[in-house]
Design brief:
Glutaredoxin, two-stranded antiparallel ribbon, alpha+beta
């Protein structure tokens, strides 16, 4: 986890699914789980767990933000309309889906350039390894990074969310 990067992260603009501009600051003091998503990945069933977290904690100041990414073996090839339709009809997604992004390389979205500075539980930073890499941003300015194989309902992620929400 990395201290005091959330303030900077909250001011970085990104594009919404409808072509608008938003920042994490637009979500106020919410606990935010940022995840790069893909529709044709072996980890795609994580959408179900992401949506379960959204439903469980949204009314307490939490949201998931999905950022579709096609950088890993072309596993998110659709248009934004196709992605939104798939998320809604297949997984019942109610959390915000942003515009498609690159997460690695020179053309990585600025918000992901900043997120990649956060350490995972092993103290490693750097590139996004695959689809469904997760970052929990707390209002206190801490970024917790979880690698793709860590499921959204993993006790470590749930603990960070619960510990960061108002009681």
């Amino acid at each position: 986890m990395t201290e005091a990067t959330t303030t900077d992260l909250r001011d970085i603009p990104f594009t919404t699914a409808d072509g608008g501009t938003a920042t994490l600051a637009d979500f106020g003091e919410k606990v935010v789980l940022v995840v790069n998503v893909a529709s044709k990945c072996g980890l795609t069933p994580q959408y179900e767990q992401l949506e379960a977290l959204q439903r469980e904690y949204a009314d307490r100041g939490f949201t998931v933000l999905g950022f579709p990414c096609n950088q890993f073996m072309g596993q998110e090839p659709g248009s934004m309309d196709e992605i939104l339709e798939y998320c809604s009809t297949t997984w019942g997604v109610s959390f915000p889906i942003m515009d498609k992004v690159k997460v690695n390389g020179g053309k990585a979205a600025p918000v992901y350039k900043a997120l990649k500075k956060a350490e995972d539980v092993e103290g490693k930073r750097g590139p996004i390894l695959w689809n469904f890499e997760k970052f929990v941003l707390t209002p206190e300015g801490v970024v917790h990074r979880f690698r793709p194989q860590t499921t959204p309902d993993d006790p470590a992620i749930v603990k960070v969310i619960e510990d960061s929400l108002p009681r």
